[in-house]
Here is the input.
Amino acid sequence: MQDALLYDRVEGANVLCRLCPWRCRIAPGESGLCRVRENQDGALYPLNYGLISAAAVEPIERRGVYHLFPGSVLLTLGGWGDNLHCRFRPAPPELPGVGEKQRYLDAERAIDFAVEHHCRGLAWGYQEPAVWLEYVLDSAKLARANGLFTLLLTRGFVSEEAIDLLGPYLDACAVEILAASGQPYEQACGLPDWEAILRSTAHARERWRCHVEVHTPLIAGVNGEEEMLRGLASWIREKMGVDTPWHLLHFEPAGEMAGKPPASPAELERAQEVGREAGLRYVYVQSGEEAGLTHTLCPSCGQVLIRREGKFYVRIAGIEDGKCARCGQEIYLRRSIFK
Here is the structure.
């Protein structure tokens, strides 16, 4: 078993984990809040290295990412562990114990599998991939060496140090951001340093030129107020840029909030208007899988540029040389792994 990255030995045999802003101080025999990084005799080890909780070959649109290699197929891998537990989600499953059924996927085999299945990229998601850092880093290096793009599907509560390790091999992040204010995070997650999510997201964009798409599950009574939505839309515009796609998600509350009604279609549509009024060019409403996907429109003339229909039918129909074929507006798409 290899050592974890980003930790210090402190106070005898205790360790300080620097992977995320919790900065857990972990005694021998104990694990951090994520439950997958354990102090063994004064050294920190990732218990989840190479262990797979889920895997799928799928269209990139299945992950709610619209401006990165649209219409491409990728391999999405899920690991174990989570460092941000929220009241509106079910509790994350425990890492299988020794002797229980565990699925291990060597990083080299993961890349071979992706290439064999004609994938254009590799993504890490399902559970929080930030706490899977060592495996994500190893497989990202191999993905880049084999010409695959890389995508992190994250909730963003990760240190800038971790982003800097991944940055040279990371093309894109889809980041779940509830709001650009503390109340929703305190209410949902008991999170004191909510601004760390905004900092790490901006750092990935500014330092490593990562393509970023923001995902916001709209949760009634948590982050659905218009003023709160305007605050997040303004942050996206000012810190990430007007071309940053913003996805407003239909969300069925679970966990402690199970049974509470989800945001209505009208609330989602109004949130979309808020984003557009703030100057964002690409604001999408995902109102549930059964409703299908959302087209990409020219922000200038409204022409359909990327048509998405049914489960995952995608057709790029209105873009020529990176511009709208009708009015000449430049259209933001990331279609290269070179930064």
Notes: The helical segments are 107-116, 133-145, 160-166, 182-189, 195-208, 226-240, 265-277. The chain has a mean pLDDT of 92. The CA atoms of residues 5 and 134 lie 7 Å apart.
